[in-house]
Amino acid sequence: MTPIRNFNALITHLTSNVGQPPCVAAVCPEDDATVEALAQALCYNVVKCRLYRVGTAALPARLRDYEAMCEVQECADADTAARTAVQDVREGRAEILFKGLINTDNLLRAVLNKEHGLLPPGNVLTHLTVMEAESYDKLLFFSDAAVIPFPTLDQRRAMVRYVTAACRSFGIESPAVALIHCSEKVSPKFPVTLDYETIKAEAAAGEFGPAEVDGPMDVKTACDSHAAHVKGLTSKVCGRADALIFPDIEAGNAFYKTMTRFAGATAAGTLLGTTAPVVLPSRSDEPEAKFVSLALAALLAGR
């Protein structure tokens, strides 16, 4: 498989697949951005969908051209919509969960329900972002910008495991993973760098499959070979990172918001660790960001 290096290539890959598209369970698709994202995904045959609407079983007008690819279920309230959609994903009637105009806490309450949710016991729930920016020549994967405030060593291991698996789904056979910090020095003053040393040793022993994992290093060193050269760094990851693992949610989220606001980057995101991709866009996200998030989820769901 040729590596997928941008979102256009992702859509081309998905549309060239002759198999049945996965079904997305859209919870409370009442806002224009969510409906438009679904319309784009249906237009490209990236997904088919089941819509869980509060108080109505009517198909939104924007989706009427795709009626044959849609089902609508009327729900009494948002919590019922969330529970029903999660149950349908759990029981195989849908392969992707997609948040519409519902509070994130309400949806996650259904996702994380110990008896009826989507997170298997012992799994780590984390967030993956895949970003396209004009200043970088390929897609950039990173974690975690949305879920884990201060990752433990076990959670960092899971983040590396998930992100390398996601990279391979995009055709990147041996992903280059940068463990991000503000410098390249390992110090007890920064316990995260000690975790990085452990993870590097495990990666070298094959714990994460084919992958180059190195750090600590800053984002510029990870993504700019000139910066790495000036610093005298020779790591195989420097200047060519496919994925970044951030030390905490503050760093990851700041990077996400800065790149999308000031660098014009487009970002797709999904939760990982669940039995199926869970797309949790912000209510303020543009339709394009929600659409590429659905495309990301479709690929990870096996499209």
Share of helix, binned: 25-40%
Order of neighbouring strands in the sheet with most strands: 8-7-9-6-5-10
Number of strands: 11
* Beta-strand content bin: 15-25%
Runs with pLDDT <50, length 5+? none
Order of helices and strands: HEHEEHEHEEHEHEHHEHEEH
Which class do the helix and strand fractions yield?
A: alpha/beta
Number of helices: 10
Q: How widely separated are the two ends?
A: 14 Å
Indicate the overall shape. globular
Radius of gyration: 19 Å
Average pLDDT score: 96
Largest sheet: 6 strands, mixed
Summarize the topology.
Blueprint: H1 7-15, E1 23-27, H2 32-43, E2 48-54, E3 70-75, H3 78-90, E4 96-99, H4 104-111, E5 126-132, E6 140-143, H5 153-169, E7 176-180, H6 191-204, E8 212-217, H7 219-223, H8 225-230, E9 243-245, H9 249-262, E10 266-272, E11 278-279, H10 287-300
Parallel strand pairs: 1-2, 1-4, 2-3, 4-11, 6-9, 7-8, 7-9
Antiparallel strand pairs: 5-6, 5-10
Word description of this protein:
- By secondary structure, the protein is an alpha/beta fold.
- It has ten helices and eleven strands.
- Strands 8-7-9-6-5-10 form a six-stranded mixed β-sheet, sandwiched between helices. A five-stranded parallel β-sheet has the order 3-2-1-4-11, with helices on both faces.
- The mean pLDDT is 96.
Task: Please tag this protein with its features.
6-stranded mixed β-sheet, 303 residues, 11 strands, globular, single chain
What is this structure, in a nutshell?
The protein is α/β, with parallel strands linked by helices. Helices cover 37% and strands 18% of the residues.
